[in-house]
Amino acid sequence: MVEEKQQIALPGEKLCVLEEFLSGKGTKTSVDGTVFATVIGRVVFDRKRREVHVEAVKEPDNIAVGDIVLGEVKELQTRSAVVKILGKNGKLLKHHRTAVLLTKQGSKESLGRHVSVGDVILAKVTSIISGLINISIWEPGLGVLQAVCDNCGSIMTCVKKDKYNVYCPKCRKFDTRKMVNHYGNEKKLLSWLGLTS
Ligand SMILES: [Zn+2]
């Protein structure tokens, strides 16, 4: 076989450089020739075509109150964020849905102290009113699964420094997030993609 199935990629994850593989479906190339994933899925290196692509794993969808959803933060304002729902209860959705995340009730803090655009989050569906899905990350166990640097777009790592709990290894920015208990836990991501035994 010319195809070789490898790891799971998240949006923004570096896959290879252009000299190694060309950018296929579910990927894009940055100005410096690095190929990134643009969707969550299985990474396939097609050696015959010298191309890398990312296959999204999908499931039928029907979102209900109480569902635990996997989402990507798309837009951020002071009190609310628009989140693209990618999966629910451990399975990826066939069609992405849009949800709204609000600041913690009674909190005066800006939502940007807890999430940022590009972050992958675990959230709970709290209400669905006229098709508008509201989600929350304020319970323990919910929150940011993977943080993306709002300065340079790199994937941040977990740290403990003063009030900060995430760090960008590329531009060295420290920031804060409302984290899940298992930040960047690969097992959790794999289970979301239905790949655990
Ligand atoms: Zn950065």
Question: Keywords for this structure?
Answer:
197 residues; mainly beta; OB fold (Dihydrolipoamide Acetyltransferase, E2P); 16 strands; 4% helix; binds zinc ion
Structural commentary:
The protein folds into two domains: 53 residues, RNA polymerase II/Efflux pump adaptor protein, barrel-sandwich hybrid domain (OB fold (Dihydrolipoamide Acetyltransferase, E2P), Beta Barrel); 124 residues, Nucleic acid-binding proteins (OB fold (Dihydrolipoamide Acetyltransferase, E2P)). The chain has one helix and 16 strands. The model has no long low-confidence stretch (mean pLDDT 86). The chain has 197 residues and is mostly beta strands. Bound molecules: zinc ion.
How would a crystallographer describe the biggest sheet?
Answer: 5 strands, mixed, barrel
Q: What is the CATH class name of the largest domain?
A: Mainly Beta
Q: What name goes with the CATH superfamily of the largest domain?
A: Nucleic acid-binding proteins
% residues in beta strands: over 45%
Give the helix tally.
1
CATH architecture of the largest domain: Beta Barrel
Q: Helical residue percent? A: under 10%
How many domains is the backbone divided into? Answer: 2
The 3D shape can be described as: globular
> What order do the helices and strands follow?
EEEEEEEEEEEEEEEEH
**Low-confidence spans: pLDDT under 50, at least 5 residues?**
none
Oligomer description: single chain
Bound heterogens, unique: zinc ion
Q: Please state the CA-atom Rg, rounded to the nearest Å.
A: 17 Å
Rounded to the nearest angstrom, the distance between the terminal CA atoms is 24 Å
Q: What strand line-up does the widest sheet have?
A: 8-9-10-12-11
CATH T-level fold name of the largest domain: OB fold (Dihydrolipoamide Acetyltransferase, E2P)
